[in-house]
């Protein structure tokens, strides 16, 4: 997803389901890395872990054509959960969006960030017993950035000069950059950037995935379920605890909750906020919420009328009552947004003033633009909890500024393919990542998911300078300037940050409330029954 986020392309068959169902250098010893290799369950999580049992989870899924085993392609939440437990990354995000070491023991940049040395963890082996080596890392990078593969993570690693990169020894890689990079770790922690075994090109039933993660592949029914079993060779001592994990898929929130309430799942991911409110008194369903929320936004293509007029964009931003959306749509499970991505992330510009709800100012701007009684169409779909409700509430709010918003609800199965990036006014949401990652995926001019048509070469150039700035204070200031420009002139109406909500059975122990896309999110290595 997004992954990136929640680019869930289609609904699982409900009947079938119910039937079966560098903020500085990234170095070991730098604050934030020490002691982060493992996370032990606490007494509050249920005492001493025990082994055994089959963990069953249900999460939002994709159609049979989009539910893939390739970690470099798996974009849905369900696909991400499978990839997370089979494979591993060099580094990953902690819940505060700083970095946590995984397969990499150390990342060491040279003085100007043009060469990064990656030292791998000793003793890691693949599911088939082969040792993890530098060749696996180089192959993974090569596959990701090869233009012929057209992989979404290519944007994350586009700065790597593969011809100038090299294997130093079995456990050491040097990656040369095309230009200075102060933040390579933030990109290596991106959604798709998993390390795969050297030479691997296919991931399917005929070529079962082989990883270094806590669980091994066992079986797969596309669009419905994946079964994993314990990896006895896993590099984190004693983990995982459960014998197996079944990951069930359902794109409909009600279907997911019904699977859980019927006793067919131990964890239900991505509860809707209204469901969480209704289930608060259910002692058989413990509600867990992410420390950092996912971005929810209305997005305008600013190269299309009437959104090509900055006064219209500002008027539409002033029209939204953000707190009302948090209260009425998210039932308090969230916080207001300020039209900027990355709340809670390093270098987020929280000093930029909160944009107010000011329908009278919006009216004045539209009058100035010759757009009084503006009429626009907002496209939505029930692909993520809260989308449709937020769109309808926004349409009501807009009337105060004399704006008519026609809300058009599309089919869930076709929203991401036929509406998103095609219609000029739609909705989007993204998981929590570093700014460096998100800008490369969605903001720079040539981004694959440039969902606001923000194409400003001068901004792109300033971004390249910022991400290559080694000095932390200067780098923060340069990111603030980038965000100020996006806040003032961009096409995002980021109205809220919605908490990711999970429902957990009392029999589940060791479950961590996790920021979406962090190392702990959908990581079942710590869970026991």
UniProtKB/TrEMBL annotation:
GO cellular component, one term: ATP-binding cassette (ABC) transporter complex
GO BP term, example: peptide transport
Pfam families registered for this protein in UniProt: SBP_bac_5
Entry GO MF terms: peptide transmembrane transporter activity
Residues covered by the Solute-binding protein family domain: 99-440
Name of the featured protein: Peptide/nickel transport system substrate-binding protein
Species whose genome carries this gene: Micromonospora echinospora (Micromonospora purpurea)
